[in-house]
Amino acid sequence: MAMKAKAKPKAVKKAAKRSAAARKSIGLKAKAERFASRNGSRSGGKSPKARVPKRTAKVESDRTSVASAIAGPRSTAPPRPRSKRFANAVQAYEAALKLMHAEDFGRAIRSFEELIAEHSEEPEIQERAKVLMHACEKKLHESERTVLRSADDHYNVGIAELNRREMASAIQHLEHALRLNPKADHVLYALAAARAIQGDRENAFQHLKQAIHFRPENRFLAARDSDFESLQQDPDFKQLVAATEK
């Protein structure tokens, strides 16, 4: 009886030790989990903040302007000083681009040509204008295989032929366009340029006067247009392009 009475306390002590060991194990596990949570890079359970490095973001405008597109890729070199006429060059570029998007390729080509002639101090704009002008010419060549119906159809093909210096074909299409739209100043202007290139002074003056009558701004374009080079020293031409609107 004495031996059995002593055995019970030992069993109780062993059970108590196992319970204490279990609590200690649970406590160590909880401590390990808290440690892993605080040191995510070691535990593999990174929090979103630990994975994302801090960076300084530069705020940029959502609007991509034509001027920035013209500037091209950023360079580490100091920016070239812009000319006083840079804004005018960008405005002319946008106007020509608008004509291109409207698929008025003939007038777009003429606008790009004027831009190139008037803004030699902006080589970046000139280079992009040349690329787009060639794209317009390609579109016009493709349109030659289609049926020409409207004045604009014939005008566009006429301008493409004029740029290739196919003068007979250019004048034929431009005159056809003029018959369909007799008051089209841009057609009259193109015909005047074609006649000037041919050396036909009388017809060149006649068409240019009419083009200026319907749109006075054409005098300023003619004064700078290399197509009228044969008339640059002509006194009548100088008077015509220098006259002010009354």
**Overall pLDDT level:** 74
What class would the helix/strand composition place it in?
mainly alpha
Shape: globular
Largest sheet: none
Compute the number of strand runs.
0
The whole-angstrom Rg is 40 Å
- Total number of helical segments? 13
Taken as a percent bin, the fraction of beta residues is under 5%
| Distance N to C terminus | 139 Å
CATH class of the domain at 148-246: Mainly Alpha
Low-confidence stretches: 1-8, 41-64
- Look up the CATH topology of the domain at 148-246: Serine Threonine Protein Phosphatase 5, Tetratricopeptide repeat
Per CATH, the architecture of the domain at 148-246 is: Alpha Horseshoe
Structure description:
Among the domains are: 84-143; 148-246, Serine Threonine Protein Phosphatase 5, Tetratricopeptide repeat (Alpha Horseshoe). It has helices at 2-38, 40-43, 48-51, 66-71, 86-101, 105-118, 123-143, 151-163, 167-180, 185-198, 201-214, 218-224, 235-242. Helix 6 packs across helix 8, helix 10 (185-198) runs antiparallel to helix 11 (201-214) and helix 12 (218-224) packs across helix 13. With 246 residues, it is mainly alpha-helical. The chain has 13 helices and no strands. It is globular, with a radius of gyration of 40 Å. Helices cover 70% and strands 0% of the residues.
